[in-house]
Amino acid sequence: LDDIFDKLDQTRVKHLLTLLLHGNFGQVFITDTNEDRIKKILDEINSDYRIFTVSNGKII
Asked: How many domains does the chain have?
């Protein structure tokens, strides 16, 4: 999901992520320009996650 905060408010993003968490979707990749914002929501819904930071086309 690419930059979902550009299209949805925080309440709708949280609802969408909750649906994904409880569905059978396997891995989901989410991009966001604000790491703290996505961490907060994922922590609130008790989701397991990993953060990958990409800079200049490389994972750092």
From this structure: 1
Record the pTM: 0.76
Residue tagged 């991009």 (tokens)? 31
Quote the domain boundaries for residue 51. Answer: 4-59
CB under 8 A, 24+ apart: contacts of 46-49:
47/17, 47/21
| Predicted local distance difference test score (pLDDT) of residue 6 | 87
Q: Whole-angstrom Cα distance, residue 21 to residue 43?
A: 12
Give the list of residues 6+ apart from residue 18 with CB closer than 8 angstroms, or none: 45
Name the token pair of 38. 């996505």
